[in-house]
Design goal:
This protein is α/β, with parallel strands linked by helices. The chain is built from 10 helices and 12 strands. Strand 8 (158-162), helix 6 and strand 9 (178-182) form a beta-alpha-beta unit. The relative contact order is 0.19.
């Protein structure tokens, strides 16, 4: 191979490795992102030498005699790691219950919140970076021989959803259903299988995988292509436009470089595994 051919081949290999996420945080920290200005929130994190991010947390399915402590949500944690890597500093995850999330942000115990869609509109003194970090289209499933047999029957019906899920507002606005929130998607699926709700709303990729399992033959898709009406936004203290713009750029890259697709696929696989454990006698501990 000629010298020029070797140079071109090397450049192609480097590009392929970057896209594949080898040798870095999935190619997240690109020069264009790292060169953006950082506002007070991110500047303080860099000076401290650590980015502190509040995320959802929940206990994983476990035998009743050996409950597990709550752990950070994997999807939230993945994005938090990418943000810390883009800043070139370590990450500290803080698992927060819904009622404590915004207080932790206001009190400065966390720099950012990565915890899905807030239950209510973003409160005073808290801003959200433009763009959603969860863009999947949802699916609603119900018992094959249950009371809810079509979309029209969802009006007034209970629908299990995980905490921070945008599908809560989706089923409420589109079908007039009554969402019931649980600590996680696994808890929501467990409650649905126990008969606590008439239906379950979740990312279509997750439910399509589950529907292939033998124990899910009793359920059927009821409504597909359920779109998220609300953004799962990164939240930070209000008044820091530079940090807000940086996070918005990070979200755009999270979507465009394939990182989001990989994270969603990993989430679907993890949830399928965790929900499948329920049939083996494992339980979700509150």
């Amino acid at each position: 191979m000629t010298e020029r051919g070797l140079v071109l081949a090397g450049a192609a290999l480097a590009a392929a490795l970057t896209l594949a996420g080898i040798g870095g945080a999935w190619g997240f920290a690109t020069p264009s992102l790292s060169s953006l200005p950082k506002g007070p929130v991110l500047a303080r994190a860099i000076e401290r030498g650590k980015l502190v991010v509040g995320v959802r947390r929940y206990p994983r399915p476990a035998p009743a005699e050996a409950p597990t402590p709550p752990e950070p949500d994997g999807f939230d944690a993945t994005l938090a790691r990418q943000l810390a890597a883009s800043l070139g500093i370590p990450l500290e995850l803080v698992g927060l219950d819904p009622a404590r999330q915004e207080a932790a942000l206001r009190e400065g115990r966390v720099d950012l919140l990565v915890a899905g869609v807030p239950a209510s509109s973003t409160a005073r003194d808290i801003a959200a970076a433009p763009g959603s970090y969860d863009t999947g289209r949802g699916l609603v499933v119900a018992l094959r021989r249950g009371k809810v047999q079509d979309e029209a029957a969802l009006r007034g019906a209970s629908v299990c959803v995980g905490e921070g899920s945008g599908y809560a507002s989706a089923v409420s606005q589109r079908f007039g259903a009554e969402p019931r929130s649980y600590p996680s998607s696994v808890h929501a699926a467990s409650a649905f299988m126990a008969g606590e709700c008439a239906a379950l709303a979740e990312d279509g990729e997750v439910l399509e995988r589950l529907m292939q399992n033998e124990e899910w033959r009793f359920y059927k898709p009821l409504a597909s292509d359920v779109r998220l009406p609300s953004d799962a936004a990164i939240r930070l203290a209000d008044g820091d436009s530079a940090s807000r713009d940086y996070l918005a750029a990070a979200l755009r890259q999270w979507r465009s470089d394939g990182t989001l697709a990989k994270a969603r696929d990993a989430r679907a696989g993890n949830l399928q595994f965790e929900i499948t454990l329920l049939k083996d006698g494992f339980v979700c501990h509150s």
